[in-house]
Amino acid sequence: LLETTLSDMCNTSKTVPLMSTLNLLNTNNEEDKMLLQKVKEYRKVRNNVVHTNVKISKREATDIVTSVDELCKSIKNGNIIAL
Known about the structure:
The structure is a single chain. 67% of the residues lie in helices and 5% in strands. The protein is mostly helical and 83 residues long. It is built from four helices and two strands. It has a two-stranded antiparallel ribbon with strand order 1-2.
């Protein structure tokens, strides 16, 4: 969902690294800034889960999914823009 939302927003292909696209995002809204930072940190969690079989709690997984969904909504609403 996040990769599709970002590629649609920036008119890029999905082959552009996700972190590169995330680093192009900007907002003046403090809540969205914190949300963006949180999602960036969750990329590390995602990589650990995928590549090292680290387990995460249901609560943490739910927070990750919710945060990504909220970030995508802020992007689609124009609250977060690409520089």
